[in-house]
Design a protein that fits this description.
The protein is of the alpha+beta class. It folds into 2 domains: about 5-105, Ubiquitin-like (UB roll) (Roll); about 110-155, no CATH class. It has 4 helices and 7 strands. A 5-stranded mixed beta sheet has the order 2-1-5-3-4, covered by helices on one side. The radius of gyration is 18 Å and the shape is globular.
């Protein structure tokens, strides 16, 4: 596989930067984030990327993969055509900072504008394997606070 990663050096320059190819071996079960970490470890230790949970919960590793917004931690390489370069670029919806990192401060500003909805907190225990974006399936309390806006929206839709 040859991931082609958009490298941006100057902060805040949309359309800036250039793609750089990183030939990377692929192992069974790898996701795009694994490939990015392998690139950081072996070819580009200064490659900027944001990630947190590696479980598809936090959204920190969002990127455009072959032109489609996806989570790098949930996109299995076997889902992609590896005969072609895998194009990984920062999310187009947010201003670029560097390489794959974008400015997501808008999310935090919006969070402060959401009014409480009377949602019972903490949420009741869930069935094993179920996920309702509440954080009840994790013991990391920060997850609940970060995703509270999602929980409030989900609660209004029910």
């Amino acid at each position: 596989m040859i991931p082609s990663v958009l490298r941006q050096r100057e902060s805040g320059e949309p359309g800036g930067g250039k793609f750089q190819d990183f030939p990377t071996p692929v192992d069974e079960g790898m996701v795009v984030l694994d490939a990015i970490h392998r690139i950081q470890a072996n070819q580009a230790p200064d490659l900027a990327v944001r990630w947190n949970c590696k479980a598809g919960k936090c959204g920190s590793c969002s990127a455009e993969i072959n032109g489609v917004p996806r989570l790098m931690c949930m996109t299995r390489l076997r889902q992609l055509d590896l005969a072609m370069p895998v194009i990984v670029e920062p999310m187009h919806a947010f201003p670029p900072i560097r390489d794959l990192v974008t400015d997501v401060s808008w999310n935090f500003r919006v969070k402060t504008t959401i009014k409480p909805s009377g949602l019972a907190w903490p949420m009741p225990p869930m069935a094993p394997g179920a996920c309702n974006v509440s954080g009840a399936c994790t013991d990391w309390t920060g997850y609940v606070e970060i995703n509270r806006p999602n929980c409030l929206i989900l609660n209004r839709l029910r």
